[in-house]
Amino acid sequence: MKYRTLGQTGLKVSEIGLGAYPISGVQQQSDGTLSGWTGTDDRQSIALIHHAEELGVNLIDSAESYGDGHSEAVIAQALQGRRDKWIIATKVSPNRGLDAGSPDLPTQAKNRICEAVEASLKRLRTDHIDVYQLHAIPLEGAMPAVMEALATLRKQGKIRWYGISTNNREAIDKLRKLGEIHMLQIGYNLLEQQADELLHFAKHENIGTLLRVPLAKGMLTGKYFKSWEVPKEDIRYERFNRPESIDAFNKLSQLRFLAKGKERTMVQAALRFVLDHHGVSCVIAGAKTAQQIEENTAAVDVPSLTESELQRASAIVDTIRAPNWSAN
Q1: pLDDT of 321 strictly over 80
Q2: pTM of the full predicted structure?
Q3: What domains does the chain contain, in order, with CATH numbers?
Q4: Which of 37, 61, 148, 204 is most buried, judged by most C-beta within 10 A?
């Protein structure tokens, strides 16, 4: 494994991190239906995290909303006795339960952040969160209170560093006028490259970056080039079956040339593409099995895409109107 510095935080993060959304599994929703990531179970997920550690991965990214906290709970089980070996990143939904028109909005917003931190700390069974991230852009009237709450929690030692998961530069600029933003989680992949300028900005400002959806929720793994069927309870089912997605899948097989036998798989080509952007600190790749994490981590050593490969891939991608996994 190779490591990079997460901007001004000084944290040394593995080039490949572990995205913990898939390990939240399938959970019952408030309406009684099942939804989430199919094909996993808690014991397998715990073993996966341990194997990732053996491969040099030291950052895991979760959220309070992943399986309604189940992802964080699984991480807690896996990291018992080895917490010091991991950088835990998790996220808060800052607007959950807030009334945008309430005169008490700032107090509501501050309480939402503080209560969410305490709940995540409890689920994670830890006394601090290394990287805490806003999972959405706070309501306009709540922004000052949210940034004040984050600064207070950092002073208390409950969070070490904080930032936001968004590709919205305007929102980032607003928040930075109200307080510190130590890092960004940015959506970027071979199909969705709109964040290129934002990544350059982050590099210039020494803001660390965690890169999400590098495989476009599985679209770039090659697994679904022939058939994109996933169970109806899978969180990707609806988006995979949109007309534009079906059209994208029919064209994605043209990218097979990026895989070069034993030298570089399709997964590794997609991850290598993201790793080669100089504004990237760590690529968060989801995994559910030991084989997947091994393939992901091996991407740090595969050949970069050549200029001719990039040009050929770009011409193909220009014809694809894929689901917008990266925007938020």
Answers
A1: no
A2: 0.93
A3: 3-317 (3.20.20.100)
A4: 61
